[in-house]
Amino acid sequence: MNISIIGSGYVGTVSAACFADLGHNVIAVDIDQEKVDMVNSKKPPIYEKGLQELLNKYVGKNLRATTDYNEIKNTEVTFICVGTPSNPDGSINLSIVKSASEYLGLALRDKQEYHVVVVKSTVVPETTEKVVAPIIRKYNKNIGFVMNPEFLREGNAVHDFMNPDRIVIGSTDKKSGNIVEQLYMGLDAPIIRTNPKTAEMVKYTSNSFLATKISFTNEIGNICKELGIDVYEVMKAVGLDFRISPYFLNAGAGFGGSCLIGEEHAIVKNPMGFIYLKTLKEIYEEIGDVDYEALSFDMNQEKMVFKKISAVTKRRYKGKLIKIRTRMNKSITVTHDHPFIVRDENQFKIKLASELKKGDMVPVFLNMPINDNNIQIDLIEELKKKGLPIDHIKIRPLNHKFKEYKENILPELKRHCRSAKKKRWRPYEVIRTNCMSINEYLSLEHKMPIKREDILLFTSKGNTTYVPAIINLDEDFCRLLG
After folding, report:
1. What is the pLDDT of residues 130-148, one digit of tens each?
2. Domain residue spans of the chain
3. Half-sphere exposure of 194 (CA within 13 A, CB side)
4. 2-194 has which CATH code?
5. Selection from 259, 250, 352 nearest residue 298 by Cα
6. Which residues neighbour 262 within 8 Å (Cβ) at sequence distance 6 or greater?
7. What is the pTM of this model?
8. In the chain, at which end, N or C, are there fewer CB atoms within 10 A of the end residue's CB?
9. Tally of CB atoms within 10 A around 137
């Protein structure tokens, strides 16, 4: 199907690339020439895991970007994926949605064929029917309207689009809903068909409920801190209740979409344990290739710790920036809604940058935290990352024998050998020789009682050298290397 998507930001770019992956012809429309040039040059305007690969694969084939709204009339479905920022009083600002609707209506004014307009932006209930539809229908009445909210997590948006929990389609008529449903053919997820305002309410309710879970957990965290209780242990137990689930029950700094400017610095640690001082811009450019941990303040432990960076995103911002300066003459520039940890009497609380006042106490980094955990190298993963051949590598248990687990391993080995068309006696040879190929191990690892920490790697028979699959870079190992 031919699709046009207005807006090449976070939701728009991800949707465009993923719809292209589903086999549709996609045109991304944006008034920002820089974003258009980036997409057409296969450069994602924002970082999302897997997005670069999709652009590399489909741009120039069934995906391209343009600033020309008139190209929309050559498509069958148009998605509105523009921003809906908050006004100073907290209400939703629909000015960009209204502007996009006006341009869209003008582009469709001479089109005779039926066209579907889909609102994917997060909007309050009744926006699709009472704001978007009236604007476009001034120019063309042969239009179907659908609200199709997104449920994407920053950093995992591509995965979430291709593996949705549900697809909500709120349409003004059955025909438009059926067309949008066809766009998602190939995805395995329940489809909820409803009206636009219900779909809009589903999105707002989902967001509000997740925010409630996070806020509630943080409040429990404050109580636990006063009583000397580990909040993570509490919420882990609470999350085992199937009525609650463990998701979004981790205490932390709350929720939000605040930003720092790219020139600010952060202390990060790479998987090898090396520590660097990097700008946010550098982290943004490297995060897809390196799994960094950032030095952060843990409110519950009341100390600095390294925590894994799950996502780094980039966006244009035209609002107010606030510069925060400490008595040590250190400064940081942030958006007005950026959260800060503040010491208030005997406890830590969260304040927005706009709420900070002179005299507020904020945590300052003075000493590098001690890493109590040994750094490990997984040789199997390193070999796979480097693209080195592993077919000739074999594995052997370190302190066990396969025959100890014969009842568990043998049925799986038999199934594997049948699927791999190996000789029928191969499973018994594995038990007898107490070794198997690394490919056999990797295919059975998820059902193996023997983990990587307990296996050795080798490449030949007889007097061979065995190497642990997991190497601990501890003090003894460093002393051995000198």
Report:
1. 999 999 999 999 999 999 9
2. 2-194, 197-251, 265-355, 375-481
3. 18
4. 3.40.50.720
5. 250
6. 279, 280, 281, 284, 314
7. 0.56
8. C
9. 15
